[in-house]
UniProtKB/TrEMBL annotation:
This is Disulfide bond formation protein B. GO terms for molecular function: protein-disulfide reductase activity. Keywords: Membrane, Transmembrane, Transmembrane helix. InterPro entries: DiS_bond_form_DsbB/BdbC, DsbB-like_sf. It is found in: Membrane. It comes from the Bacteria. One of its GO terms (biological process) is protein folding. It holds the Pfam family DsbB.
Amino acid sequence: MVTDYTTRLNAGSFNRLGYWFAHLYVVGMCGVLAGGFYYQFVKWEYPCPLCVLQRMFMMLVAMGPAYIIARGRKGRVDTRDYVTGYGIAIVSAVAGAMVSARQILLHIVPPDPGYGGTVFGLHLYTWALITFVLAIVAAGVMLVFCRETEPLDSDYTPISAAVMWLFLAIIAANAVAVFLLEGFNWVLPDDPDRYEIFY
């Protein structure tokens, strides 16, 4: 057992790659969520309830690798931490993909133009489905190569702290954005056209 651990620790670069990939995963999901803010606050496209749900699942997807990063503060991330983190990501991405597919199916019959703007001809909820599928694949690959990429000697650095603060800021910004849209109402309108908090 000790020999096995030493051999894996000597692999070094792959173990560090596994830990830093978790950072990249979180930053990538934060980037997608920031893109949603661009459409909301710059292009004035109000997210519908399904859009908000997809954002929530994206945050849950990012929470998996964020958990791995956070466990790195204690030093070595064990196999259970690693598998738990990417397991959270996969389950959340599957749920998010179902919500995205639901929204795609709502607007699939012509002449429905779809909801909101497009990026390269695809609506944001279609891109969300693509994002969730890629998130599942990435987490799955990391689990398949768990022995090679498990962070045995994780190093929680200022970069790790910055990634965690970025993620927390994205969560807080989403909470504020939903509050502005919904105001003190119990539910968000199906087709929002204003920030209810101001009315």
